[in-house]
Amino acid sequence: MSAIQPPAETVWWKQPLDKVEGTWIAIALVWSLFMFIMMPLWHIYGKQNLSNEAYRTTPQAFLAKTQAMVDEFTVRTETAANMPVVRPPPGSDVYILGRLWQWWPILELEKGQSYRLHISSMDWQHGFSLQPVNINTQILPGYEMVMTVTPDTSVEQTIICNEFCGLGHHNMTGKIYVVEGGP
Amino acid sequence: MNKELFRTCPESGLQFHKPAETLMRTNAVLAVVILLFGGITALLVTLTRWPAVHLLEASQFYQVLTLHGVNMLIFWMITFEIAVLYFCSSTLLKCRLATPRIAWLGFALMLIGIVVNNAAVLNGDASVMMTSYVPMPANPNFYLGLILFAVGALLGCFVFLGTLIIAKEEKTYEGSIPLVTFGALTACIIAIFTIASGAVILIPTYLWSIGYINNIDAAMYRLVWWALGHSSQQINVAAHVSVWYAIAAIVFGARPLSEKVSRTAFFLYIAFLQIASAHHLLVDPGLSSEWKIFNTSYAMYLAVLASMVHGLTVPGSIEVAQRAKGLTNGLFEWLRKAPWGNPVFSGMFLSLIGFGFIGGISGVVMGTEQINIIIHNTIYVPGHFHATVVIGSTLAFMSLTYFLIPVLFRKQVMLPGLAKIQPYLFGIGMMVFTMAMMGAGTLGVQRRHWDMAFTDAMIGFDYPASAYTFMGVVGISGVAAILGGAAYVLVTVLSVFFGKPVGSESSFGFTTSTLTRAEPVVMPEGGHEAAGKWGFAAPGTFLLAMFFLVIFVLYYAVNWKYLASVWPIS
């Protein structure tokens, strides 16, 4: 009987497996298990894993922490809006906030150094997309995401918003400079 | 049983319950109208993302993109699927449809929901994309329309389940339900889970939008919303795999290689497909890696395993049927001599290839916890789901339509020449389109973004020239695919409303007999394997499956290598 009619054998579940099906199921199962194991293995041996570190926060609290970093470590301002460029010490906690429609402030990081990067949103959901290195995460209001990043290329990076956030979404950008270490 | 309420299709032998037939026709016609509207929005979106054209203004673009997403991903798919559910229960089980009046109530609610939701977006204050992520606000009618539609679809699911019960009670079939009905039941169960999740999140969001609730947590919203958003696409998968089996049976008289394997694979869908809402949350704050890994992999890729099984058993059953008819030369005579000019078959086969090779592989790769870091929210993502939903589901539904026009609507398929090339224009256009999108996404081009040149941004960014080339290819191939979609709508509308009835003397259109070979295949002595090679009943299909696996493994490895090149993150 064909697939649009009831099975000819009423006890169809005792029908033996075709060799072609059995072989393929075995191969596909091995591949599936391999792909499953790859993810925990990458947590052990790979270098690109998001941390599980995140906190509940509020826009006010996160803005205060970001403002404190900006007040202490601003080295210059850029763009028509006088955006602060902040150069915090290597190994420190650094902050970027997303709001309609900018990433604030601009960071200047040293190549090869690690930083604890905190990101949150002041208003709606945003997407943190660092280009051209191509690192993408989701940024939510009320949640502070923390990840340790180690810039290993000294190309200037642009932050693009890649979660739709209204009319100015395509203009929501920011910047991270990566510079060679020095005094 | 009142015999007068039934008619038997003389060519296909299928038996239609007249109230069910009217419902199927009406749902299918509404679906095609939505597809037409969705297609117009598709053209506008494509012409805006094609950098050399950049047609719409930003606000229009986001509005049209919202319309495109909601109408295509939710309204077109589910409306057509309700017709498929009625077909797979009432028609395949030769049974009266349960409570046609409730089915009409469901249809009315769906129609009202579609109108209310679209009106809200057209009004201009609900350009929030299909996902409507809180706390970005939309006109309350946006959510209300979705809720009404969902309630209507839920009624359709219950009518389907009720029909299964009646068929069993009235013994309209012997033994177990057909495999295709089993697949439709899978789709129905997933649909009920999906709609329940939608209610859990959209009702509070509606109350929030009218000011009754003051806060919806963004992370909670995403978790529950995607149990609607992703699972609704799993309804499509279960439905279009059922359609593949149905078409293999209709065109070739193919029978499943084994009922046990195919049904178990459908059962794996029920058990594991829905947890893949985690695919959308892999780079979200507040969820642990353990949670992400278990859920994103459908618990060790058991639902992927199920799709890989269907990917073998559907063409495998066709190969066995063709070999039984004597097409036994070499490994691929059965495929070479398949009816490539029959759009019922060609559309289904392109759907199978595109869904597996493009949609399936890319979905697993980008659904890998860490690899998602280089893909999340880039245009790679719509590249992936256009391969699953458009090539997989929509093209399968299109090819089924060419069978339904003579059988359900009793009309000849008009413009047979155009119908013949339509699946190729649409399918191959979409294949190029989706792969070009993935290419651009790999270079960091964003989805849902009006201006990849950042003309008005205070801080700009220059994508490499190759990214613009990819987006140009997206534009050209997108327009080609949309022409293929327009050809489908044209053929369908002309045939259904202006076509010659089946049975009248005419060499003008396709009829059932040119589209189908419904008699089941007689197996040769010695069973399946006798006509195959190496003890395999379907050696050609097995070789194709191994080719698929090689591509899969290579592409998977390439993406890990790419991930390893980005900044260390911990």
Biggest β-sheet strands, sense, barrel of chain A = 7 strands, mixed
- By CATH, the topology of the domain at 54-179 in chain A is Immunoglobulin-like
Give the biggest beta sheet of chain B: 2 strands, antiparallel
The CATH homologous superfamily name of the domain at 54-179 in chain A equals: Cupredoxins -  blue copper proteins
Helix content of chain B: 55-70%
What kind of assembly state do the chains in view correspond to?
heterodimer
Description:
The complex is a heterodimer of chains A (about 180) and B (about 575). With about 180 residues, chain A is an alpha+beta fold. Chain A has a domain of about 130 residues: Sandwich (Immunoglobulin-like), CATH 2.60.40. Helices cover about 25% and strands about 35% of the residues of chain A. The mean pLDDT of chain A is about 95. The mean pLDDT of chain B is about 95. Chain B has three domains: about 240 residues, Cytochrome c oxidase-like, subunit I domain (Cytochrome C Oxidase, Chain A); about 110 residues; about 160 residues, no CATH class. Chain B is about 65% helix and about 0% strand. Chain B has 16 helices and two strands. Chain B has a two-stranded antiparallel ribbon.
Features:
heterodimer; A: 183 residues; alpha+beta; seven-stranded mixed sheet; five-stranded mixed sheet; 35% strand; elongated; B: 570 residues; mainly alpha; Cytochrome C Oxidase, Chain A; two-stranded antiparallel ribbon; 2 strands; globular
Summarize the structure.
By secondary structure, chain A is α+β, with helices and mostly antiparallel strands. Helix content of chain A is 23%, strand content 35%. In chain A, 46% of the residues are buried.
Strand-helix topology:
The complex is a heterodimer of chains A (183) and B (570).
Chain A: H1 19-45, E1 54-56, H2 59-73, E2 74-78, E3 83-86, E4 93-99, E5 102-104, E6 106-110, E7 115-121, E8 126-131, E9 135-139, E10 143-149, E11 157-161, E12 173-179
Parallel strand pairs in A: 3-6, 4-7, 6-12
Antiparallel strand pairs in A: 1-10, 2-3, 4-5, 7-10, 8-9, 8-11, 11-12
Chain B: E1 6-8, E2 15-17, H1 18-49, H2 58-91, H3 100-122, H4 140-169, H5 179-209, H6 218-252, H7 259-272, H8 289-296, H9 298-324, H10 333-336, H11 343-366, H12 380-407, H13 416-442, H14 465-498, H15 512-515, H16 539-564
Antiparallel strand pairs in B: 1-2
